[in-house]
Every structure is written in C-alpha cells, then in structure tokens.
Amino acid sequence: AADDVIAQVNETLQEAVKNETAKFHPTPAGQAVAYTSIMLMAFFPIVFGSFKSVTHQRKQKESGEKPETMTRKDAAMFPVIASGALFGLYIFFKLFSKEYINLLLTGYFFLLGVLALAHILSPSFSRVMRCLLPSHFYHWEYRISFQRWSTTQSDECEEYFDYRFSYDDVACWICCCLFGVWYLWKKHWVANNLFGLAFAINGVELLHINTVATGCILLGGLFVYDIFWVFGTDVMVTVAKSFEAPIKLVFPQDFLESGFGGSHFAMLGLGDIVIPGIFIALLLRFDSSLNRQRNLYFVSSFVAYVLGLALTIFIMIYFNHAQPALLYLVPACTGVPLSIALIMGDITAMFKYEDHPSEEKTSSADEQQELEREGNDVQKTTPKASPVSTKKNTRKDK
C-alpha cells in the first residue's frame, strides 16, 4: 500500500512538472510587441471617435434632432446594471456549456459588427466608388421606409424607419458582410480586432455624457466596479477568457515566433477604451465651445490616458496578475484635466458646460438676452436732461 501511495505521488509530481513546462512563458520582446500594439489600437478609436463626436454633435444641432444623452441618474445606475450583466454571464458560463452560449453571442455580434463597420467605412466607400463608377450611377437614390398612416386623417403619419442608400452603400454592406462571414468562419484575432475597433469608435462617437459632472459620476462608479470584480472575485477574468466575442482587443504574445497564427494573447477590454474615451470626447467638445486655438483639455486628458494605460500594463507584467485598468485610468483622465482647469480658471465653465442644454435653460437664456437687448435699446432712446434745465430747476427749488 505504501508503494502505491508513493507511486501515485510521483505521478502527480511528474504531471505537475509537465504542465508547468508546457505552460507558455512569453519573452520580453514578445510582450513588448503585443502590448505596444494593443496600446496603439486603443489610442486610435479615442482620437478618431472624439473628433467624429464633435461633427456628430454639430449635425444634431443643425438638424434639430433630439439627442440621447446620459443623465446623472443613468450614470449612477450604470455600474449596478453592468455588475448584474457581468455576474449573469458568469453564472451562465458556470451552468451551461460555453460553446452554446458563444454560438448565440457570435450571431448577435456578427450583426452588430457588420452594422458598426459599415457605419465607419461608408464615407470612405462613397469617395472611392464615386471615383470608380460612372457619374450616371449617382443620379438615383433608393429609400426604405416604414410608416403608419391614419385612415381618417390623411395628414397624420408616424414614421418608424427611414433609410436612404445608393450603390456605394450597397458595395459597403457587401464587403462588411463578407468580412463578417470570415469572422464567423475563422474567428481570427485580426477580424476580432477590426470589429472591436468599430465598436469602440462608434461608442466614443455616439455615446454622449451631457456634463462633466455626469462623466465624473460614471467614471467614479466604474472605478469601484472594476476594482471589486477584478480583485475581489474571479468573475471578470473568467468571463473575459470564456467570452468569444469582439468585446476586447487582443494581440499574440508569440507573434515573433508564430506570426499571425499566434495563440497566446494579451488583451484589453473595450470598456477600458470606450468609458474613458467618451469622457475625453466630452472634453474635446468643451474645448470646441471655448473657441480657442488649442484643445488643451482634450490633449491633457489623452496624454493622461496614455500614461495611465502604460502604468496598468507595467504593473500587470511586474506582478504577473490581471489589473483593473480603470483603477489607473479614472484618476488620470479626471484628475489631470480638472487640475489644469482649476489652474487656468476654467473649472466653473467646465462644470457649467452642457453638450445639449435643456429647452428650459435655452429659452430662459434667450429671454435673458432679449431683456438685455431691450434694456440697452431703452437706454439709447431715452433723452438726457440738459445742464441748463437742471440748473433752472435747482434755482426754482431754492
């Protein structure tokens, strides 16, 4: 019996040594290439999406479109909702086969990815196709509309959907669908990253927080959320490794050895790009409202993001443990621009700034300006008393 126990212990030790030997140990050069590539990929959607958000805001104001912005209540509730969704996915992966869950999620993100990619590439496709195709192709435009009309009142109509497109849009959709099929078929990390970048750019462009205070509430809540779910439990890491969907940017740490066929990935979640990114985009729109030649707060917050992300990666490699990126990004992205605003004397203007002022505030501001103009007109038209008449009145009083 003793010999059997000794033999079993030896087999266990040999298996442990074998697993440790087979475990991948990235080289310093491989880590440097992987994490540098991830950082560069993270910077692009923040910069590109921020400038697109300025254009999107201007188009909304010109068209009179009612914007959808995040309120302070929404910002405060967002970490709670995100925690519920994250823990729900964790339970699903524990109870059910992750193959079936990922199959369902793959189809869902395929549709979303094609939509996001088409939204990004459509302007470029339009310019290219207009150079390639004859001009008579662009004399026609197609339209798909879904409306509800009243049978009693001919003027009463409710529009649910209205989409206009031309040949270049059709070409863009075909190319994006073919790319999506490649993603479904191969699940290659390059396809994952292209879909992920499209999601991140659209998120930074279209997700607007109306005020700096709302942004601080959102980032503060997610700061606590990220620390708890990474350090307090294994939930975040488990879901990130089990979730086969383009919700993270990846790059193989064995790229120097295996090239595009590498399989040992470094990763960064899209939330660590989009969440700070929408705050940085807000600061760019605030810079635009100041009508200054330099985008001081955008540049400072972006540099702070770069340094915060670099610090996250350094600590993660040094301690060989997953790190909550928002632990470093939130203080950097909020503390630096707020400190500069305090020094420059812009802190009041920064917290008063609103992307889309409410109708009540807009009307009250217009009324105040109108009253000021009327007061100035009254002062200009009121005749001033002459010195002679004043003197006469003074003598009479005496």
> What oligomeric state do these chains adopt?
single chain
Q: Name the helicity range.
A: over 70%
Distance between the termini: 132 Å
Widest beta sheet: strand line-up: 1-4
Name the helix and strand elements from N-terminus to C-terminus, one letter apiece: HHEHHEEHHEHHEHEHHHHHH
Computed over alpha carbons, the radius of gyration is: 29 Å
Net shape? globular
Largest sheet: 2 strands, parallel
Mean pLDDT: 82
Q: How many β-strand stretches? A: 6
In short:
By secondary structure, the protein is mostly helical.
List keywords for this structure.
Preselin/SPP; two-stranded parallel ribbon; 8% strand; mainly alpha; two-stranded antiparallel ribbon; 6 strands; 398 residues; 15 helices; disordered C terminus
Describe this structure in words.
By secondary structure, the protein is mostly helical. The protein has one domain (26-132, 163-356). It contains 15 helices and 6 strands. A two-stranded parallel ribbon has the order 1-4. A hairpin with a 7-residue loop joins β2 (142-149) and β3. α4 crosses α6 (189-206). The longest helix is centred in the first third of the chain and has 36 residues, at 28-63. It is globular. Residues 16-21, 362-366 and 384-398 have low confidence and may be disordered. InterPro entries: Peptidase_A22B_SPP, Preselin/SPP.
